[in-house]
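Input chain follows. Return structure tokens only.
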Amino acid sequence: MKLKFLIFATLLAAMGPAREAPPQAVPQPDPPAPMSPEEMPDSAPAPAAAAELIERDAAQVSPGDFRWKSRPVVIFADTAEDPAFREQIQALRRRPGMLLDRDVIVVTDTDPGANGEWRRLLRPRGFSLVVMDKDGQVKLRKPFPWDVREISRAIDKFPLRLQEIGRTGMSP
């Protein structure tokens, strides 16, 4: 009988007075005032709701243009009509907000004959998806299209991305 009473008292104490007290309202900070286009810094990405994927042709940019500013996602194909290339571009354009939140710039190269700087650096064969970090290092290579969610998850595991979001030292 004493054991039952002890268990009952322990459970009752564990529930505590919080069950009886009404929940306290937590004051929320005021949202920041929207900035006019003139006030926005040049490096700020567009809001995700009205976001458009930032795409560049490999012939017009070089890998050094993005160092410490953006994460290039480079998509190679032997032709712009490659089904894997088209599927990858469509997947990226469907959900640009997740990529813009991670400072992603999409670089496309569909001309193997030009042998541009990106091809010499990354040496793709056929269709290739290459994800680089802001420090210019190749972090991921895939020979098939990847969904934006998969790319975002991979980026979120990069050491520089972990520093950006303040989760260094925390286990995933």
